[in-house]
Write a structure and sequence with these properties.
globular, mainly alpha, single chain
Length: about 350
């Protein structure tokens, strides 16, 4: 047990060690360069964790490892539950049925497509395929983190999925403004979308929340309505984490039973309760009973806890574990990226017509 009398000191030392990395990652994320790139402390934290895992990992006392694992598992679930304080049901209602439908269609199709491409076409493990697909389909690193406890997968698989989110989410931040405004000054771009349509398109297809915020901000003379629509549609996708995980839990149980794994851990896991609690917290937040200042403080603490979890997952990622994967993650993420950009445009124009 991590907090038994024998292991308590080592566990606490490991947690404090992860927290120190998370503090540094948070500080770095506040720099002008990181904010302009849309890199959240979560992404910086996992990068720092990976660097540590492949350089100084063996220099750390073995007794600290339980604290690092605790940060990547238990603290993670707690942080996902309190992620619900970022969302209200009123925000989802504001954007209307158009934004909801685009979010639902893109999430479902991207998750199915990415899992199929990774597992069936490019030969990745099913867990890695699902994690990579969930990051692209929902909300980037946070969705990968939320899916990881359900799959009980190894840390390096999570790192693969997050790295794909970072790569293609960053590409999106530079590509989408060009598609909307064109390359040269005075050009009209390639999309020919209204500000509201483009906001729905951005929110329904770009990976990270921070990246969604960055795209309208980088477009000259963009309207406040465009930015608000993009963020609300994105948060609609975020809240869909919970039903997605519940359905995924039932699918994993059915899949294990079909494959004859009657004693599988996945067979026993039907409902990820932290996802249910996430919905409950979002519902409570929708009642607006707490002062905004308190909610902001909760979200700030929650971001730090998510950064700790990402850092801890990075600390369990050793490059030698990647051998044999080849370019399959890149191919899978590229396929999903093309669908998000092209398919997302088609779906948005169809829904908004």
């Amino acid at each position: 047990m991590p907090f038994s009398l024998q292991n308590r000191q080592g566990t606490l030392s490991g947690i404090f060690f992860v927290a120190l990395f998370a503090i540094i990652a948070t500080y770095i994320s506040q720099s002008d360069m990181m904010q302009s790139l849309g890199f959240s402390p979560l992404v910086i934290g996992i990068v720092m964790g990976i660097v540590y895992a492949n350089t100084l990992h063996k220099q750390t006392p073995a007794s600290w490892h339980q604290g690092i694992r605790f940060s990547g598992k238990k603290i993670l679930r707690f942080a996902i539950v309190f992620y619900g304080f970022r969302i209200t049901f009123q925000q989802i209602a504001e954007v209307g049925i158009d934004g909801f439908l685009v979010s639902l269609i893109m999430l479902t199709s991207t998750l199915i497509l990415g899992t199929w491409l990774g597992y069936k076409v490019f030969g990745m493990e099913k867990d890695t395929s699902i994690l990579t697909a969930s990051g692209a389909a929902v909300c980037g690193a946070a969705a990968v983190l939320a899916t990881e406890p359900l799959l009980k997968s190894q840390e390096y698989k999570t790192a693969i999925a997050v790295s794909m989110v970072v790569l293609f989410g960053t590409i999106s931040m530079f590509l989408y403004p060009i598609l909307y405004t064109g390359i040269f000054e005075g050009a009209t771009g390639f999309l020919h979308m209204s500000p509201r349509e483009f906001g729905i398109y951005v929110g329904g297809t770009i990976h990270e929340v921070a990246q969604v915020v960055a795209v309208p901000a980088s477009i000259p003379n963009s309207s406040e309505g465009m930015a608000n629509t993009a963020v609300i549609v994105k948060m609609t996708r975020v809240i869909m984490i919970a039903p997605m995980l519940i359905l995924l839990g039932f699918y994993l149980a059915w899949s294990s039973k079909k494959e004859g794994k009657s004693h599988s851990d996945k067979m026993q896991l039907m409902i990820p309760w932290f996802a249910v609690y996430f919905i409950a917290v979002a519902g409570f937040n929708s009642l607006q009973l707490l002062p905004l200042a308190l909610v902001d403080s909760i979200n700030m603490i929650d971001t730090f806890l998510l950064t700790m979890a990402m850092t801890a997952l990075g600390m369990g990622t050793i490059f030698s574990q990647f051998k044999g994967l080849g370019l399959a993650p890149i191919y899978t993420a590229t396929g999903m990226f093309i669908w998000l950009v092209v398919g997302g445009f088609i779906i948005t124009k169809w829904v908004c017509a």
